[in-house]
Amino acid sequence: MNELLRIENLHVAVDGKELLHGIDLVLPRGEVHVIMGTNGAGKSTLLHSIMGNPAYEVTAGKIYFEGEDITEEAVDERAKRGLFLSFQTPLAVPGVTVENFLRTAKVAVSGEQQRLFPFKRRVQQEMKELQLDGAYADRYLNDGFSGGERKKHEILQMRVLEPKLAMLDETDSGLDVDAVRVVSQAVADFHNENNSLLIITHHNLILQHLQPDAVHILMDGRVIHSGGADLLDAVEAHGFEHFRK
Ligand code: ADP
Ligand code: MG
């Protein structure tokens, strides 16, 4: 099936307050879609809702993944199906090393045991590509990580878990230009015709490495405009308000 993700008339509320007011979105397999919009537009809310974060209550509408209704499914079930969400501010988890965390997550998501040494080699190889020091694998998760290291860890996680749908929430913000290049290249290398990316970004740098198939502009909990990659330049030139209906 070519359609990986379908969202129909999605309404989402937090603490009884509606934040998304009827989102429709179709993401075919193998495509890269970008979500842009003003601060507070509901971009992160949308990704959290797709991932199944229980803080976000779906009050109407449906989410389908590979044709199956996952609207009511728990986060871990969605992760097993191949959904992945990077977080803007991952929590520190003292006592759990990066490598242990990745291995546990990989076992949980894939349902397969991961042999210690091949897995270790795999992680070392991925870290090299991300220009992370090899010793990083033995550090406690996010404990004292710099902003850049956290972001790279999100991408490391994505590459190890190999999701069908990778959702990246401002993974490129707060990084220096060199780090953005490394991260963007690692995301681009990961992408192929069998996976899809849903990316929130305010920067065009990451998109120099990835050719987006579609761009969606979100405002006040609604998709106000969708189009091709040329929308990126239009947004740069005219801002978001220009697209309000
Ligand atoms: P964006 O990512 O586009 O900047 P968000 O999705 O983070 O926007 O937020 C959209 C709106 O919903 C904001 O007004 C924000 O304060 C509110 N919001 C988001 N998440 C929560 C939450 N967990 N609890 C309360 N309000 C939230
Ligand atoms: Mg956000």
Over all CA atoms, what is the radius of gyration?
Answer: 18 Å
The percentage helix is 25-40%
Structural class: alpha/beta
Query: Can you tell me the overall shape?
Result: globular
Total helices: the number is: 7
How much of the sequence lies in strands comes to 25-35%
Largest sheet, strands/sense/barrel: 6 strands, mixed
Bound molecules: adenosine-5'-diphosphate, magnesium ion
Q: What is the H/E string? A: EEEHEEHEEHHEHEHEEEH
Query: In which order are the strands of the major sheet placed?
Result: 6-9-10-3-11-12
Number of strands: 12
Give the oligomeric state of the chains in this entry, treating copies of one chain as homo and distinct chains as hetero: single chain
Mean pLDDT over the full residue set: 92
pLDDT < 50 stretches: none
How far apart the termini lie comes to 33 Å
Tell me about this structure.
The structure is a single chain. The protein has seven helices and twelve strands. It is of the alpha/beta class and 245 residues long. It has a six-stranded mixed beta sheet with strand order 6-9-10-3-11-12, sandwiched between helices. It starts with a strand and ends in a 7-residue tail after the last helix. The mean pLDDT is 92. Bound molecules: adenosine-5'-diphosphate (ADP) and magnesium ion.
